Structure formats: structure tokens, C-alpha cells
Amino acid sequence: MKSRFKLTSGKVLYGTYAVIAAAAFAVAFTAASAASSALSTFGGAAPGGFDSLNRSRPLAALGSEQQCARYSGLPARWRDDPQAGMVHLHGGEFVFGSKLGYEDERPAGDGKTHVAGFWIDQTDVTNAQFAAFVKATGYISDAERQGGAVVFHTPTRDEMNARDLAWWSWVKGAAWNHPRGPGSNLDGLMNQPVTMVTQADAFAYAHWLGRDLPTEAEWEYAGKAGHDGADLDTAPRDAHGKPSANYWQGVFPVLNTAEDGHAGLSPVGCYAANDFKLYDMIGNAWEWTRDVYTGAHQSHTNGDTALVAPLSRRHDTPMVIKGGSFLCSRDYCVRYRAASREQQEADLPASHIGFRTVLRDAS
What we know:
It is a single chain. The chain is an alpha+beta fold. It has a single domain, classed as paralog of FGE (formylglycine-generating enzyme) (Alpha-Beta Complex). Helices cover 17% and strands 14% of the residues. A hairpin with a 3-residue loop joins strand 7 and strand 8. The radius of gyration is 19 Å and the shape is globular. The N and C termini lie far apart (41 Å). 47% of the residues are buried.
């Protein structure tokens, strides 16, 4: 599927973008849109993956706007408990992939895949957690070393008509702790996912805690939370029809109606957890996995961020990111789903990508 649009000044008008984008993506998800959405990804009876090892553990008190706004960004018993902020999943079999999504999501054979037990963070790693890591180790992130990062902004009419991927810019001085570039900081943002981190940054943090990044299969097993049905491939909404994750409602990239309550990144845990008690597995920030991206390669439907990075920058290995972000919309991404996958160069920091960690059971 061709998913990037060339906008030529004087030929494509800003106001017609919705028609172009909607037409381009209507075919891909006809089956998913027609499927019943009465069941929510976050609803239903609690499946067995969330097991007894979680009993009496201090799970995060999140799941609403009020709770996420009050959250400090540091889980209970942070640094005292090796599994602080994590839940245990005993592992099991699930269908890896989707027949209703993009070509690179198609299951191999019947898709049945087994994963062993592991601990996984309830939320994305927050700015507060990453700041604690930096304070303890003196770590310097890749964005700081490279001198910038790829940052999203809502483009103007002139920008849209002047260049492709007008919503992405390489911002000098942008980094995890300077999200909008020099002069910006994390005041009031410590409970948000850390972004503008590369896969190496995520590995460094995980290894500091004796943890790892999830494989793509582990991540998807956790994201599907024991479910296997067409509802997994629909835009996540609760029983009242309200978006149950932070993704784009409106016309990407020019109008976000913020029906979900947030026009950009939100604090972690503002929406109900899935049935494995995990927050924000869908939307808010894409999440790094440890796996190299293979299969039917498809261009980024949010725009290939590498195209706006400095020309002098070397191209690194494309890795799998999972879960979608606040930029995923029904007309220009459709990756607000557990089976969705995307590629990102391992060393390219961007404002819509974060991560969470895992700790595998001893074999």
C-alpha cells in the first residue's frame, strides 16, 4: 500500500487533505470497520495471563484523567522492588498478527505462537523514571549526542503545500529532557512517557534495572490481553463510545478534535487498563521492541521520520515498534491496534516513540 502523499504547491489544497487521506485508507480496513465493535479491547472477563504472582502487589492506581494527573511518574516501591511498576504474565499461546490489518501483520500459518512467562511494566517508562536513571548513571542520550530529534507539529497551510511530511521536523537541541528544543523542559510532564529515546537508550535503561525490551511477540501477547477477535482491529472505544486510548480523532495532520481528551502526549494511565492490567498498550506513544523489522516492508503511514533527519546521519537497522501513538488516525495510520507494527531506525529519536521493559522468568 502506498501511504505517503506528495503535496505540490498550488495543486493540492490544505482543505482537501481529508478527502485524499480518507480515500487512500478506506480500502485497507473495510473488513475491520464492518466487524462488530460492541466488545472493547479493554473489556470482557479477565483472562488467565494475569496470574497469582500479582496478588498483594501494589499495582498503579491509574485508569482515569484524575488519577493519571496526580501520578508522580514513579511506581510504588521504585528502586526497592526489582519488579516495581510491573505485572506478571504467566505466558501462553495466542494468535500473532491479524488478517484484518496491513500486509506485514498477516499471521504465519495459523498464527499460533507461544510465549513464556515474564514481568512487564504496567505503563510506558515515564520521564520521571528515565530522569532517575540519568541522575544515577550520568547517561547521555543519543538525541543529545546527535544534536537533535524528530519532532511533530501541526503544519500550517503553507507548510503543507511547500513540502512532503510537513508535520515532521528535525529540531536541533530537542531531546528527552528538552521535548520542544532548547529552552523547553519537563516541568509538569514527569508523568508522561519518555520519548525522543532510541532503542539503545531504551536498552541502557532496561539493563540498568536488570531488565530487557520485549520481543514483538511478547509485546503483542501483552497487548491483546487474552483476546482474539475482530474488535481488536477497530478503533478502541469504551462501552459509551468514547475513545479508550490516546489516538488522533479528526483530519491528520491538520485537525485533532481531541475527543479522547488529549491533543498530544498524555500522562501514562489516563485510560482504563486492558485485561492484563496494562495501560496505554494502544496509542499515546509507540514502543520499542528488541526485534529487527522483517517481512512485507511498508513505508511509514505517519511519514518516514528518517526523511527529515540530517543528510549526514547514517541509516541504522529498522526495528519493530508497536502499539501506535497519539498520531494514529483512521485516515492516515490505522495502527491503534495490538497487532499493528511499524519500522523505525534503531538510532533515530522521535517525539512519538517510547518504551516499556520486561523481566523474563528463569528458564
